[in-house]
Specification:
With 351 residues, the protein is α/β, with parallel strands linked by helices. The protein is built from twelve helices and 13 strands. A hairpin with a 5-residue loop joins strand 11 and strand 12. Helix 3 packs parallel to helix 5. The structure holds thiamine diphosphate, iron/sulfur cluster (SF4) and magnesium ion. The site of thiamine diphosphate has 18 residues, from helix 2, helix 4 and strand 5.
Length: 351
């Protein structure tokens, strides 16, 4: 783990957001990841998105598992709540925290090993339960931290640095998230900040399970010819279906586009996603269509990116479970332990 804190000196003219913070205030410690690792670019995109959204740092809880990717929360949002859990167990810890206090914004950071191997069950249940969170997988196709073994997202036929061929079929987390009922599903690339930042912003505004798979090359173990998660491969095979402009509810919309070239999605909180269509036939409101489109294009070796599916009226675990609105730590002892008479009443109603 890194222990190197960044100097706290700010240039006095650094721009401040509406809640008075500079971009530096959303940074964390100095990264100890390899120079050029895609994960550092994703950290920078998260910092940018949260700063632009004027979120107060104490309103965010960032949770992760184990891996180079799961180390990154140490490198951003240093003034937010954080919990580095056990390998593959971020979703259940996050679910518990979210049930205890729904007022925070939950950011779950994971890797392809963390979520598609040991944590696959945890990933599946967070998605199907509609936990209100932004679930980001920094996907490099290998276990970077343990020296580059193929992970479950490595494509069949892709080559390791030493030339071994992967014979196993890949787990596609985006397809799984769609099938499991996630209400916001996107894929992006760490090398495309212009696409990634508005996707993170829109996901943070989304009031349900939002999943973003970010292809994030590992320069130490998976950035060679024959890898399908290298910078070169993703740049050459990136098929973006749309570009989004994210507008928080308070902003006046004044950008002009040619009629028909833009699709507007108004989210539950009033924020607007303006989708500039790059593939005219692609409809991000059609879950089954998105699944078919992905499978067809994946079979051709293309990496489909963009906002793949969004339900503008999502429901989350709290709505399904009819839970109390207030964070549990604001309730008194009588509400938390309602005594035997209340239990009797409940039992009687079930007889
Ligand atoms: C229970 C448990 N099993 C195995 C490990 C060893 N281990 C640490 S990180 C890791 C894989 C990390 O891969 P990924 O999630 O893809 O993260 P990356 O390093 O590639 O970003 C493994 C297998 C562990 N820490 N804990
Ligand atoms: S080993 Fe790979 S994933 Fe880990 S920091 Fe280095 S480049 Fe990034
Ligand atoms: Mg990995």
């Amino acid at each position: 783990m890194t222990y190197i804190a960044k100097p706290r000196l700010h240039h006095p003219t650094l721009q401040r957001n509406a809640v008075g913070y500079t971009r530096r205030d959303y940074e964390g410690k100095i990264s100890t990841l390899c120079a050029g690792c895609g994960h550092d670019s994703i950290s920078a995109a998260i910092i940018q998105a949260v700063w632009e959204l004027d979120v107060q740092p104490h309103r965010v809880a960032k949770l992760s598992g184990i891996g180079c990717s799961s180390k990154t929360p140490d490198y951003f949002l240093g003034a937010s709540h954080g919990f580095n859990t056990v390998h593959g167990r971020m979703p259940s810890v996050l679910t518990g925290a979210n049930l205890a206090n729904r007022e925070l914004l939950y950011l779950g950071i994971s890797g392809d090993g963390d979520s598609a191997s040991i944590g696959l069950g945890q990933f599946a249940h967070a998605m199907r339960r509609g936990v209100n969170m932004v679930y980001i997988v920094m996907n490099n196709g290998v276990y970077g931290l343990t020296k580059g073994q193929f992970s479950a997202t490595a494509d069949k036929g892709s080559k390791s640095k030493k030339g071994a061929i992967n014979n196993d079929s890949p787990v596609d987390l985006v397809s799984l998230a769609l099938q499991l009922g996630a209400t916001f599903v996107a894929r992006s690339f760490s090398g495309d900040k212009a696409q990634l930042v508005p996707l993170i912003e829109a996901a943070l505004a989304h009031q349900g399970a939002a999943f973003i798979d970010v292809i994030s090359p590992c320069v130490a173990f998976n950035n060679h010819a024959g890898s399908t998660k290298s910078y070169d491969y993703v740049r050459e095979h990136n098929e973006a279906v749309n570009r989004i402009d994210f507008m928080p509810y308070r902003e006046e919309i004044n950008t002009d586009y040619a009629p028909g070239s833009v699709q507007e999605v108004v989210q539950h909180d009033g924020s607007v996603l303006r989708l500039r269509k790059l593939h005219a036939e692609y409809d991000p409101n059609n879950r089954i269509g998105a699944m078919n489109y992905l499978q067809e294009h994946q079979a051709k070796g293309e990496v489909v990116t963009g906002l793949l599916f969004v339900d503008p009226e999502p429901e989350d675990l709290h709505a399904y479970s009819n839970t109390v609105q207030a964070p549990l730590n604001t309730l008194g002892v009588n509400e938390l332990c309602p005594k035997s008479a209340a239990l009797e009443k409940i039992n009687a109603s079930l007889r």
